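User
New here, help please:
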Amino acid sequence: MKKELWGTTKDHENVYTYEISGAGGMKARFMDFGANLLSLWVPDAEGNLADVVLGFEHLEDYFTNAPYFGCCVAPCGNRIGDARFSLNGKTYELDKNDGINNLHSGFDPLCKRMWEMTDVCDNSITFLYHKKDMDMGFPGNMDITVTYTLTPENELKIEYTGLSDADTIFNPTNHSYFNLAGHNSGSVMDELVWINASHFTMTDNASIPNGTLLDVKGTPMDFTTPKPMAPEADDPYEQLAWAGGYDHNFALDITEGEISLAASLYDPVSGRKMEVYTDLPGMQLYCGNGIQSGARGKDGFLYQPRYGVCFETQYFPNAINLPSFSQPVAKAGIAKKTTTIYKFLNV
């Protein structure tokens, strides 16, 4: 493990980075600001390492981080319609930071705050945040932990835990943008995506699900056979046109609570393949439509839209307002846990 001082926050807090290594050859770099993933080096078949996640060169860019590069989004990833929800007969109002809706917990999410590093070893690191009752509008004093582990099987294993003293929402996700050819290789749109889902959640033009599941068959949303995201990302299909490309939740054909294969990404050029495993019912495929053109990333590389793709495991967006969907509720006094694994192979 290698620890380095990177800089300070606007509140003069020291920000440290931590680099860990896995027995399979992978390396990863994190920071205690946001508990966020900064770099993930993955070998190809010849052992050549490439950093396969997008990110910034300078710490200061993470203070705003509009694309949410590498973010540990908590307590609630994705969108909540009308920025409000009811729980146990009480209505809670949230930040309206995405039009009239709430996105990724609001204007001041935990991925843009200092966390406490509580445990670290050569291949694993744990961060902790003590969220106070009604912080960001969510009820309950809640201890939130995220543990990142690099396994000998070349997996990045992410384990989330939330323990609250009141019923609340807990729907964390990882918002890394992957490009298996390397973060500085350009467009990700020709890499092949497969998703274990026969349905996706229908949304309105603000990307808020209404409770309807649509069949992917016969639509550009069908990833049941591996295919590139280009050119169908620009298909006039209404659900795609409203979102400006892929930015949709897929209802996974897996059993909630059991860690199962949800999706994969494959780069034919490098031969790297990533498999996504989760115990959650949904996954957002987001192909980076909103990355700012010319955003300066690591090594000074200039990113463009669609240079990386996110696989955000989750409860369905707006599920708390749609009783027919599985609910992202953490009960008071009961630790709620979820695991996501990104496994890397060479084929």
Q: What stands out?
A: DSSP finds one helix and 29 strands in the chain. The CA atoms of residues 246 and 286 lie 5 Å apart. The chain has one domain: 2-189+286-346.
